[in-house]
Design a protein that fits this description.
The protein has 562 residues and is mainly beta. The chain has 4 domains: 138 residues, Distorted Sandwich (Glucose Permease (Domain IIA)), CATH 2.70.70.10; 158 residues, Sandwich (Immunoglobulin-like); 114 residues, Chondroitinase Ac, Chain A, domain 3 (Sandwich); 85 residues, Immunoglobulin-like (Sandwich), CATH 2.60.40. It contains 4 helices and 47 strands. Strands 1, 4, 6, 7, 8, 10, 11, 13, 14 and 23 form a 10-stranded antiparallel beta sheet that branches. Strands 17, 18, 19, 21, 22, 26 and 27 form a 7-stranded mixed beta sheet that branches. Strands 15, 16, 20, 24 and 25 form a 5-stranded antiparallel beta sheet that branches. A hairpin with a 2-residue loop joins β37 and β38. It is flat.
Length: 562
């Protein structure tokens, strides 16, 4: 009977969390930003690389150019045009204290689109971030504001939709505002993991436990652990009737009927969204592409309004008794899943020994090798790391330094750290100007122009991996999608950008001596024909100047007919 009472209390407590969260926000004030039924491709709080997903991804039936409408009365307060991120985005500020955001758009409504275009030609710059006063572009609920698209950091046609607190700019879970999205499916659990927490969640790391479906619940065999201090993590997804793997909204861990830890993903600011890396098993996410969420607090994880338990989630087992473990997952609609199992402390294993290069949360640390130095802030790590740093001879043909290994790309850092590297020979001033850091993260690379400080060059990074200094004398270039002097019959000009190291960081196009607006789409530059180059206007000269990360510039000239 006691166990039943405790279970009823836990369910009532979880229900009160959902109802309470929803009651804090206006219900049915906002309408759907699309004129088709709302279907989710991703929800608020879903796990992404280095951040939580900060809104809803709404399906557009795999199409572009669907009507996007204002979710409520207000005014356009901001627009953004950028290569990655939101692509083309509209921000609407509403009189009830909230701002809605609509991203990955193809086109703004006509008056706004013309205004943005005028500003781009005035600034001679495609990327824009423009703010507006309330009287410039007022909108009413349901008014067309844009056409949906696939711009920016989008992997397919959809609409990204956010609701923010206007004053704090904190993103709030849109599903707490009463949108009617059918959802009758409970979260699905597929894995459970325990961690020896005497030293760190990273060492020795995750211990996997097979999860089995048991009627309407989940279970495992009795979990035998060899540490008196442990924590748990869960691998699970939500489905919401629509097939996509959505993120978990609420989780709670109980031991012997007592709440040990819980989290809810109601609101997150962009300043804090990187704390996601302290909420997940980051090594598993980066190495195995697995989304495993901790049911405990890592010491350096300081995300506000996330842990609703007031406890750390670290379990102290002081005897070899069998203890009851219950994990409850819940979505915003109240659909619930439970995992019920038992844990027993079997024996004590050897504890990880801290090294002389131990990096801990809340303590800054500088670590050096003969020719390099890394300076980590007190906010750098989420849990203890026996930091390893080494150097070896560089093998890259353009290398002017040794290769430096900063621990492992499978361990996260929260904020920027400073890396200083000394080249392996004396460089001329001209060579110094062409020196770049090449950073290898394992799955991708990045090139950064550093700043010289004495005989070392330094730059700031926020991921670990392998770094080397390179001399880059190569020129960037663009390749046209037409033959020289050809008559262009389609609606666009497309140039493909290429550079040996790093990225094309500067692009300027002039048509017959006047700046021409090209959009940046990944590595391509695209101009959509308009009144600046009408049909039948004869032979045109297009001059394109590009510069890469190292600062090398190249000017190319092309001709075409229109």
């Amino acid at each position: 009977m006691k166990a039943i009472c405790k279970l009823v209390f836990a369910i009532s407590f979880l229900t009160s969390i959902i109802i309470g969260a929803q009651n804090n926000y206006p219900q049915n004030y906002f309408r759907s930003p699309l004129n088709i039924p709302m279907q989710l491709a991703a929800n608020f709080g879903a796990v992404r690389a280095n951040h939580f997903h900060m809104g809803l991804d709404l399906r557009t039936n795999s199409q572009e150019n669907l009507s996007v409408v204002a979710a409520a009365d207000g005014y356009v307060s901001r627009i953004k045009v950028e290569r990655y991120g939101f692509g083309n985005a509209v921000y609407i500020t509403h009189p009830n204290g909230y701002t809605t955001v609509y991203a990955h758009l193809n086109k703004y409504f006509d008056q706004l689109d013309e205004y943005v275009k005028e500003m781009q030609y005035k600034d001679e710059k495609w990327e824009q971030d423009i703010t507006f006063s309330p009287g410039q572009f007022p909108v009413t609920k349901g008014q067309l504001i844009a056409l949906s698209g696939n711009t920016g950091g989008s992997a397919g046609p959809h609409l990204h939709f956010e609701i923010r607190d206007t004053k704090t700019e904190e993103c709030i879970n849109p599903l707490l505002f009463g949108f009617k999205i059918p959802d009758g499916i409970s979260p699905i659990m597929s894995g459970l993991y325990w961690y020896d927490r005497r030293f760190s969640a990273y060492e020795p790391g995750a211990n996997g436990i097979t999860v089995k479906k048991d009627g309407s619940n989940y279970t495992t065999d009795v979990i035998q652990v060899n540490s008196p201090e442990i924590s748990f993590a869960i691998k699970a997804v939500d489905k919401a009737n629509q097939g996509f793997n959505l993120g978990i909204y609420h989780a709670e861990l109980l031991m012997d009927g007592q709440r040990v830890y819980s989290f809810s993903i109601d609101q997150v600011s962009y300043d804090d969204t990187r704390y996601l890396n302290g909420c997940i098993d980051y090594p598993k996410f980066t190495k195995d592409k697995m989304s495993i969420q901790h049911l405990s607090e890592l010491r350096g994880m300081k995300l506000k309004n996330y842990n609703s338990s007031g406890k750390t989630g670290i379990i102290h087992l002081e005897d070899d008794s069998v203890h009851n473990i219950e994990i409850v997952l819940k979505d915003v609609s109240g659909n619930t899943s439970k995992l019920i199992t038992k844990v027993r402390y079997a024996r004590n294993s050897q504890q990880v020994t801290p090294s002389d290069k131990l990096v801990k949360p809340d303590e800054a640390k500088t670590i050096s090798t003969e020719n390099a130095e890394i300076s980590l802030s007190k906010n750098a790590v989420y849990d203890a790391v026996n930091f390893q740093m080494s150097e070896k001879a560089g093998t890259h043909a353009d290398a002017v330094s040794n290769t430096f290994v900063m621990h492992s790309s499978y361990i996260p850092v929260h904020d920027d750290y400073t890396l200083k590297i000394k080249p392996n020979r004396k460089l001329t001033n001209e060579e110094k100007e062409k020196t770049v850091f090449l950073f290898d993260y394992g799955s991708d690379t990045d090139a950064v122009k550093g700043k010289w400080n004495g005989d070392k060059v330094e730059a700031r990074f926020n991921r670990l991996g392998t770094a080397i200094l390179l001399l880059d004398h190569s020129l960037p270039s663009v390749s046209p999608g037409w033959k020289e002097g050809a008559l262009i019959k389609n609606s666009t000009l497309r140039l493909n950008g290429r550079t040996k190291t790093g990225d094309i960081v500067s692009f300027r196009a002039e048509l017959d001596g006047k700046w021409l607006r090209f959009a940046r789409v990944k590595d391509d530059f695209i101009y959509i024909f308009d009144e600046k180059c009408p049909k039948g206007s004869g032979l045109h000269t297009l001059k394109v100047t590009t510069a890469n990360t190292a600062g090398n510039a190249n000017t190319q000239t092309f001709t075409f007919q229109r």
